[in-house]
Amino acid sequence: MNHRGNMNEMPDRLTENPEPAVRLGPADIVALSSPYLGGGRKLESWRIEEVLIVDDSLTAVVSMDSVYLSGADGTGFHLSFITAMEFVSQLQIIHMHAWAGLREKTREVWMLESGIKTIRPVRDRNRISVESHFKNIRKQGETYYSLAKHSVTDSQDGLFEIWIKALLS
């Protein structure tokens, strides 16, 4: 809410910051930046262990081979939305190729739209479950379209919900 009481408008300035403007130098930027986004995510690797496709559904198991542990999270590993989006995107690519009758990746898949809700943290790095339901799968000419809703869960009740609208050209 801004100083006029309107929740839809941004405040004139941050009330926690007494300065009207702040200029950050390189050292300030480094001090405020996420080490994970700055390079830690590149240390992570994952592997898809199992995939089962039945009509418009896909179930899979994914495990993390290596992880980045945040110094700010004292409870250990937590799956990032970036990593979840990576392996869910890979699963959608697999499903679209299989649905098109292809047995290897020979065509490009384009993400048109996506969204993610990280409802509860996924903390178990082993045997992460993915359940995907593909809606509105259709073919127009040689192009395939799909809208999929993916649930990512673990043994500790973690839950991410991801949706992706994509096309295979």
Q: Can you describe what's shown?
A:
15% of the residues lie in helices and 39% in strands. The chain is of the alpha+beta class and 169 residues long. The chain has a six-stranded antiparallel beta sheet, with helices on one face.
Using the 3D structure, state the CATH architecture. Roll
Share in β-strands: 35-45%
Query: In which order are the strands of the major sheet placed?
Result: 1-2-4-5-6-3
The CATH first-level class comes to Alpha Beta
What are the key terms here?
single chain; 169 residues; alpha+beta; Thiol Ester Dehydrase, Chain A; 6-stranded antiparallel beta sheet; 2 helices; 6 strands; 15% helix; globular; disordered N terminus
In short:
This protein has 169 residues and is α+β, with helices and mostly antiparallel strands. The protein has helices at 26-32, 81-99, and strands spanning 45-54, 57-66, 109-120, 128-140, 143-153, 159-168.
Write the layout of secondary structure elements.
Blueprint: H1 26-32, E1 45-54, E2 57-66, H2 81-99, E3 109-120, E4 128-140, E5 143-153, E6 159-168
Antiparallel strand pairs: 1-2, 2-4, 3-6, 4-5, 5-6
